[in-house]
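subagent[fold] <- orchestrator: predict structure for attached chain, return tokens only, no commentary.
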Amino acid sequence: MKKIDLPNKIPVFPLSNFIIFPKTTVPLNIFETRYIEMINDSMKKNKLIGIIQPKSLNDNQISPELHNIGCLGKIISFKETDDGRYLIELRGLIRFQIIKEINSNHKYREYEVNFKSFYHDLNEQKEDLKFSDLELIFKDFKSLFERRGYILNWKELEKQSLDETINALAMASPFSLEEKQVLLEAANLTLRKNKIAEILSTYSYDVFDNTTLQ
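subagent[fold] -> orchestrator:
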């Protein structure tokens, strides 16, 4: 996608403790009426929706206050089930900053957004990082994931580009809602890598009955 093709108004899907990063793909099971409507409208238009986290799990469940930064995704796979649910795959494209909510007749929420701080998310160029730079992070990540019962195919991960790998690990990690938001808002891949290292260092003494990880 090019800058000129980015919309200034998008439908948003608030999801607690769920983040999509640029250059990652996630499956979603859509069953609520308002989000069925959102997917229908998106499929007829540009297949784009925004994923963003509410600021609190205890917020109003209909219109919770949202974080300022989310990620625009494109529907790349769509299937309707016999019971009326939608199974989609969403590919992260670029982060966005919300400007204001738009009043509409839709059941779902729409926002005016801008992308100007995140155009580099669209670039294919790789930053100056090597897997050797990340060995310690991967080691700590693997240990944390295994203690939490997460199973990842590390060899397959290492076949991906660095940005895809770091974003996939950040997205799938057993970090808190706030920690994942910090990773999403990190300006670039190098800063995201450093933030991951900082967060992992706080879990150095993590034990099985530690309840700080969700």
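orchestrator: received. Logging for downstream: The beta strands are 9-14, 25-30, 48-52, 69-80, 86-102, 109-114. The chain has two domains: 3-120, 131-201.
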